[in-house]
Specification:
Layout: H1 2-6, H2 10-13, H3 25-52, H4 73-113, E1 122-124, H5 125-128, E2 135-140, H6 144-149, E3 152-156, H7 165-172
Antiparallel strand pairs: 1-2, 2-3
């Protein structure tokens, strides 16, 4: 009996909660599930960013000014919900831009079929989702004579102007 009192168990000497795990086992599973969901949503958000880049990109995220710390379950849920909302907004923006580009492509096809019905309509290549400068435009053939005669055609501009502009051309002469 004296040996039991001389060497009490370690758990009896430790203050309450010192040897207890910091998170309960059910909380660990919840944290793991939330981290997995956050990683999946971040991966999908990065894919959406890459998809939207040629279309003009996405709005940058709002910077959070918080000191580094370990997030609890509530904060992890807020992070997940914020990421899910950003992903939803990104998908809506991508779909809206894709619909706008499709409508512009349809207009271009109609312009090519019947230029006279689309006089002076101009569609930039960027509006079609195509890289580079340039624009499709319905113009009269032979200027004023073609306008009066109803001779219309679709013309693709040559693209970007020279880097120096017209001022560089006059200086070189």
């Amino acid at each position: 009996m004296e040996s039991a009192l001389a060497n009490p168990p370690v758990a009896d000497l430790a203050p309450a909660g010192l040897l207890a795990p910091r998170t309960a086992p059910d909380e660990r599973a919840g944290r793991r599930a939330l981290r997995t969901q956050i990683a999946r949503i971040e991966r999908e958000l990065s894919d959406a960013f890459v998809t939207a880049f040629p279309m003009g990109g996405l709005e940058p995220p709002v910077a959070m000014a918080a000191a580094p710390h370990l997030l609890d379950l509530g904060e992890l849920e807020r992070v997940r919900d914020d990421l899910a909302e950003r992903l939803r907004a990104a998908r809506i923006q991508i779909a809206r831009r894709a619909d706008e580009q499709q409508a512009k492509r349809l207009t271009l096809e109609r312009m090519l079929l019947d230029p006279g019905s689309y006089r002076f309509v101009r569609i930039a290549r960027s509006e079609l989702g195509e890289p580079g400068c340039g624009a499709w435009e319905v113009r009269p053939r032979l200027g004023l004579i073609g306008m009066l005669a109803g001779w219309w055609h679709v013309k693709l501009s040559s693209g970007c102007p020279l880097a120096g502009g017209c001022g560089a051309c006059s200086v070189a002469r």
